[in-house]
Amino acid sequence: MSDNSMTPRQAAVVLVAAMPIGVSVQQLEEYGIEATTEQAQAITQEVLSLNLFWIFAAIEAHIPQKYQPALSELIVGAIEAGWGTTIPVGSVSWTAYLNEWQERRRRYKRLVEEGVSPLAVSAEAATLMEENHLVREAERRNLLTLLIDFVPVDSYGQLLEDVG
Question: Which of 71, 80, 81, 136 would disulfide-bridge 8, Cβ 3.0–4.6 Å?
Answer without folding.
Answer: 71
